[in-house]
Amino acid sequence: MDSKGIKHQIDDLLTHLPGGNKRAKTVAIEGNCGRSAKCAAIDKLPNTFENKGYVHGPIDSVFGQRRAFPVSIDTANVDMDKIPESAEEYLSQVRREASEGVHQDEDEEEDFVYIKRGESPAQEQQGAGDDDYKTMERYLQDYIESRRIYDSYRQQLHEIDGIELPQTAREWKKFIWEVSCQREYIAQIVEEGLHMKLLVYFTKWMWLKMDSNFTEWLLGILSAVDNPLSSSDLSVVRQLGKKAARQLAHGSEEAIHMRSGIQSLLKTEKEAQEIVAKARQYRAQKLKAAKTDAQTEIEAYKATKAAELKSFQDEFAGANVQLESNAEKEVQVELEKIRKTALEKKDIVSKLLIDTISSPKPELHANVAH
């Protein structure tokens, strides 16, 4: 499919989904004071609309065309968060949003493309553009198919069951997050005119956790909205689209910060692992050195104690010999005394024994006579 056909389908999607934030891209040509070539060419054209009864203003310096409707409200004072109460307020919001979108070239690269002379936009964005077109084409086909399926279902539905729907915002919130989206619920909601009220709730709840149930309900309601919409309903859809765009941009920033945080965590973890490895290596070296020092101290202690023991043995070895010699001498002296005493008493003892044997005493035998 060529780019022209895809562009046609994108326009068709924006037609089916009123309030889609289709923002024009402006191409600035270098050396032309920031104004587009189209605007410069229109300035040179003669004013052929004079005196023809047309209600028109001057040529817009940004968009290069005359304003389709006169708007007396100053766009600088328009409250973008307010739901418009008239067509004039709605057009003022649209004009201010378009004007701000064109000049936000520093913050939103997707709304502004700067091309030097001699360069082709197609060459710059060919790779990314192909993917964007394919994604948009897929979204377009999915949305058109969802609308077709719902329209077919609604045409075949002759009676709508009296389904009891929630009344308060709290009840709706519980219902959306807990009940699966069904076509009969969608038909009942649209029949009772509660679908735009739900879109307002969806806009408020978009900052919350958007699970698959929430997404199915949101897409289900969008596939059932009228075509075309009234100005007030269109404003509700536009607010939903702008909130979704901000949420998407915020999510992209969070993803970038998350990736940066993950990289920082991985880097920190790697540094921590290196520190732990160095600490283990240092600890192993210290343990090895401590073991060597302890072994050296043990050997020195053993040598010291061995020297002390040898000195003690050498010191008391001579003393023991002397003591033994002195004891031996004392024993010999005592033995000599005993021998001398025995020799001296030998003759006396022998004589006493002989006298006793040879000279008996009668009194010792007195009892023999009796």
Automatic annotation (TrEMBL):
<dbReference type="GO" id="GO:0016887">
    <property type="term" value="F:ATP hydrolysis activity"/>
</dbReference>
<keyword id="KW-0375">Hydrogen ion transport</keyword>
<comment type="similarity">
    <text>Belongs to the V-ATPase G subunit family.</text>
</comment>
<dbReference type="GO" id="GO:0000387">
    <property type="term" value="P:spliceosomal snRNP assembly"/>
</dbReference>
<dbReference type="InterPro" id="IPR005124">
    <property type="entry name" value="V-ATPase_G"/>
</dbReference>
<dbReference type="GO" id="GO:0000221">
    <property type="term" value="C:vacuolar proton-transporting V-type ATPase, V1 domain"/>
</dbReference>
<feature type="coiled-coil region">
    <location>
        <begin position="265"/>
        <end position="304"/>
    </location>
</feature>
<keyword id="KW-0813">Transport</keyword>
<dbReference type="Pfam" id="PF03179">
    <property type="entry name" value="V-ATPase_G"/>
</dbReference>
<keyword id="KW-0175">Coiled coil</keyword>
<protein>
    <submittedName>
        <fullName>V-type proton ATPase subunit G</fullName>
    </submittedName>
</protein>
<keyword id="KW-0406">Ion transport</keyword>
<dbReference type="GO" id="GO:0046961">
    <property type="term" value="F:proton-transporting ATPase activity, rotational mechanism"/>
</dbReference>
<dbReference type="Pfam" id="PF04938">
    <property type="entry name" value="SIP1"/>
</dbReference>
<dbReference type="InterPro" id="IPR035426">
    <property type="entry name" value="Gemin2/Brr1"/>
</dbReference>
